[in-house]
Amino acid sequence: MIALPAQQRDPKGWLVTPALFFILALFIYPFAYGLMLSFSPMNGGSVWANYITFFTDSSMWPTIIVTLKLAVPATIINVGVSVPVAFALRRTSPWQKFVTTLLVVPVTLGTVLIADGMLTYFSPNGWFPQALQALHLYGDEVRLTHNYWGVLISLIVSGFPFAFLLTLSYVTGIDPTLARAAATLGASPWQQFRQIYLPLLLPGLTMTACLSFVQAFSVFPSAVLLGAPAGPTRVISIAASEAAFENYDYALASTIAIVMGFVQLLVVGGMLGARRFFYTGPVTGGKG
Amino acid sequence: MKHTFEQLRLDSVSRSFTNAEGQQLAALKGLDLNIQRGEFIALLGPSGCGKSTALNCIAGLQPLTGGGIWLDDKRIDVLPPEKRGFGMVFQNYALFPHMSVLDNVGFGLKMRGMPKAEATKRAKAALQLVQLIGHDAKLPGQLSGGQQQRVAIARAIVIEPPLVLMDEPLSNLDTKLRIEMRAEIRRIHGKLERATIYVTHDQDEALSMADRIVVMKEGVVQQVASPKEVYSRPKNLHVARFMGFRNVVQATLEGTQGEAVAVNANGVRLVGTPMEGFDSKRVSVALRPEDMERSTPGAENAFDAHVEVVEYGGRDSLIIVNSAFGKLWARIAGECSEGERISLRVAPSKTLVYGEDK
Question: Is there a contact between A286 and B84 if contact means CB atoms under 8 Å apart?
């Protein structure tokens, strides 16, 4: 290799500057500021004081568990259910358009509106519990709001369309002649799914799960509106919001936010690490 | 696992579908065909003629809308593709991108529940048969087109199917490899002693590989015959055109001369071979460029031609001439220059006379 003279260097690299500036100003600086803040306790003490507070205060550290208890099942349900639904709708059809359109609606509504609607629909006097009781399907009082279930349902309502649309695009990206080839070789429909579709889908599904998890882990409005924010659904974002806007302890709030980010990073990192073991190449069967 | 069968019978196999406007369109109309064990059948036709539809119907990838498929006494068109046990090679190969070459080939055996050691042994033998050795652990994406093709063939034949279906398997390869693979596929077919149905739009491929050719057009079978028969005695004008009879001349029937017929084409008298019955005096004469030869004026079937374009081709030249019948293509050996006036002729046995071109 011969080193190029300096004047021949490609100046196009400078085009990245505006974007770099943006990232610095809007992401790196606020993040670094928050990180620094979390190490400067409001009432003095060691740099770790806020972290020690978080992990010893029984009104704080259990919020991680509470949030995981909501986010993990929500992610599993959203991704798990979207696979068979997307698979059933993989061929372009009027049904595919209908379901896709139907599912885009909750995405556009936003969590607050969904929470509002759910309060009337699922509350003890709402249509759903009333209908269940009228049909004698369930005798006891049906409680689906102001508890864990209300929040979980809202995470599914708002998170499922997102997971489904992503999964659908992965499923439709797989060359259908692969399944046909498998069929001519003796694979039953289940084996075609298990041997061909699933392995080719796994990398995409991990990505979908990561995004779904991050979305669910930062749940806030529905945990307040539909849950029991003082107890069973006191998620980590509620703890951060309390610290910041009720106790005006921005340093502690930053600490909680950093912990929150760290937990998300841990889970996402774990999932992406697992992705390395899957096949991640092209999903078509030849040079076609 | 070896299936023995004597014949595969297609009994007026039809497939139609409804388009967006609600019209019934027939992709395949009443295909009748008996295929004997060991035969190599080519389905030949231009794109959209229904040949791939026929193949997919046999494989079970598309349902029939009429007729039936029988393997000896067993009706198979009611079975799903995975129960038919035919091997299929797809146009884009359809290799499983996430499986190694060996796993791709062994897939059909795995689905049949064969123990792994035995399956590996057979998959390796199949790879040896297609002459692809030392690539077992590679993924399909790491192979060249020709190698992928060999894997696809090995995968289809390792299950020892009674019938191998091939859907334009060579169309994605370059010319040299295509010609090599033709002989290769013939060789593999000969070794297996099974039947092969091969879909192609390339006459050369069909002529060089098949025992029998099924020529199709718009979902209808035009001719089923040996390559020699299809090449030299196309049953109708469609087949003739498809088999390289590039010159079709309108003429009037004058009379018969024993087996032959005499026609008048724009004042030139030609003696030709009648290929079908005529319902009027208006007939079409089909001439293949390769069958034209230099002649002396006044000889039988000779006509004057004015050379307009010469495309030099080495061994011979493709020329376009203007004649009493209009523009004609001719492939002739020897020197020839533009503007020259020459005399050409086609032997009466190669001057094919069909009914009016509708």
Answer: no
